[in-house]
What we know:
about 75% helix
Amino acid sequence: MTVWIIFFALITLFLALDLGVFHKKDSVVSMKESLIWTSVWVTLALLFGIAVYFIYEHQLFGLNTHGSSGADAITKYYTGYILEESLSLDNIFVIAMIFKFFKIRPEFQHRVLFWGIIGAVFFRLVMILLGQAFIEKFEWSMYVFGGILIWSAIKMMKDDDEESDFKESMGVRLLSRIYPIDWSIQNGHFLEKVNGKTVATPLLATLLVVEFTDILFAVDSIPAIFSITDDSFIIFSSNIFAILGLRSLYFFLSGMLDKFKYIKFALVFVLMFVGCKMIFHHQLTFLKEHSWVSLVVILTALVSGVIASMISNRKEERNSID
């Protein structure tokens, strides 16, 4: 329990510094700033992996109930982190569409994402604990989770880029039952007084849509990480560090999402891989005994997607010149 308290205190400190100190005023996040913060969050995630190694190697805080070595624990942590970070790329595409649909000004986007992260931390914890309890009680749930991932991969292949009507989403419908929404307000507040009545702003509607979207994406990502490990601390910590870096990653990638058109195919492959790993977990014991193999497969898929995108971009540039 002690290590959980320390971890939550650490995350609270990071978030307090983020919004209360470094992003106290609403401003447009530049490419340079987003790159710096992306590097900061990735560095923190990697450093925490070292802490995971020592905790499990020396069996501290009573976390190592499976008797895992430090090397095995850090490999699973890094694999989970990279898996969750890669799956969040598809989330970035949708968030960009949501901001565009609701016409959220760039200086207010960080505020929406910050509070979206707060909600995501809570919902991810609940879903991880429920998922772990479900797997421990029902072994067949591994087949269900694996099927969900394969279905998600197939759905991702079929998805087109048509813009949805986010005003019809569940979050907006629930909000409109509590507060009327004034779509003309663009002042950075979530609630506002209009003629003595409290109304919701497009910023609050956007926050709820982002939150519900993250829950839907968690239906994919949470089962995916259970294919790596069933250790709740490794699952949660790798998940949270991936989420914490999502804001900076969004501002870094949002302006060049079209440059990585083959990333989606890499994500489809990753989902297929982890889905098959869960369904055939009794047969694929090699992957369970050698956790580094999953890390290599996932990294190879992502790097291949990036390289394929870069090659395609260069060909298009040459053709446009010719």
